[in-house]
C-alpha cells in the first residue's frame, strides 16, 4: 500500500506543498478499503463516515426521491477524493448515495479522525479548502451547463472535460448525469465524432 500513499501525497502536493510533519499525521489516517461493483458506501439519511481517496474503479454520487426519480450528480475515479463531502464536513446526514459502479479500491480516512486533524493542521485545512473550492467551481459550471446548454452542447462539454469517461461509465448513468434521455444520448454518440 505504500504506492497508494505516495499517490495521495502526489495529489496533495499538487494542490499545495505539505510540510513533512503535517503529511505524516495526515498519512496515518488512511487505511486500504475495497468494495464490489454496485455497493452503496454511503446511504441517504446516514452520516458520511469516511473521506475516500480513489485508487481504482468508478463511483457516483446520486440523489433518489420518493417518486423513484434519480439524478446522478458526480462521478469519482482515480486519482480523486470521493464520498458525500457536504455531509462529511457539515456532519449532517447525507441527502445522497455514494455507490461503486465498478469494483473499487480506496484509501479511506475516518471523519472522526480527519476533522480534528484539519482543526490543528493549517496546511491540511488549506488543502481541503482548495479542494472544496475547486469542487464548488465545477458544480457551478455544471449548473450553467444543465440550465443553459443544449443536449449536444452538454455532451460536447463532457467529452472536452473528461474524454475518457465514455469508456469508464455506463452510458445510462452519463445520460442521467447530463439530463438527457438515454435514446438521445445514444444518438449523440453515433452522430458526434469523438
From TrEMBL:
Name of the featured protein: Crp/Fnr family transcriptional regulator
Pfam family, one: cNMP_binding
Organism of this sequence: Adhaeribacter radiodurans
Coiled-coil ranges (or none): none
Domain Cyclic nucleotide-binding: 35-119
Domain of life: Bacteria
Amino acid at each position: 500500500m505504500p504506492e497508494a500513499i505516495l499517490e495521495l501525497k502526489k495529489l496533495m502536493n499538487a494542490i499545495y506543498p505539505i510540510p513533512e510533519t503535517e503529511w505524516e499525521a495526515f498519512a496515518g489516517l488512511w487505511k486500504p478499503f475495497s468494495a464490489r461493483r454496485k455497493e452503496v458506501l454511503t446511504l441517504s439519511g446516514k452520516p458520511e463516515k469516511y473521506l475516500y481517496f480513489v485508487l481504482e474503479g468508478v463511483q457516483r454520487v446520486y440523489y433518489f426521491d420518493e417518486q423513484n426519480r434519480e439524478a446522478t450528480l458526480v462521478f469519482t475515479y482515480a486519482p480523486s477524493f470521493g464520498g458525500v463531502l457536504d455531509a462529511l464536513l457539515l456532519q449532517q446526514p447525507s441527502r445522497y448515495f455514494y455507490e461503486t459502479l465498478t469494483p473499487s479500491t480506496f484509501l479511506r480516512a475516518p471523519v472522526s479522525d480527519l476533522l480534528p486533524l484539519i482543526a490543528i493542521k493549517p496546511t491540511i485545512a488549506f488543502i481541503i479548502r482548495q479542494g472544496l473550492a475547486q469542487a464548488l467551481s465545477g458544480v457551478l459550471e455544471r449548473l450553467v451547463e444543465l440550465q443553459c446548454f443544449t443536449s449536444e452542447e452538454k455532451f460536447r462539454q463532457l467529452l472536452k472535460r473528461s474524454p475518457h469517461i465514455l469508456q469508464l461509465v455506463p452510458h445510462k448513468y452519463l445520460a442521467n448525469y447530463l439530463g438527457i434521455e438515454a435514446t438521445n444520448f445514444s444518438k449523440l454518440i453515433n452522430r458526434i465524432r469523438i
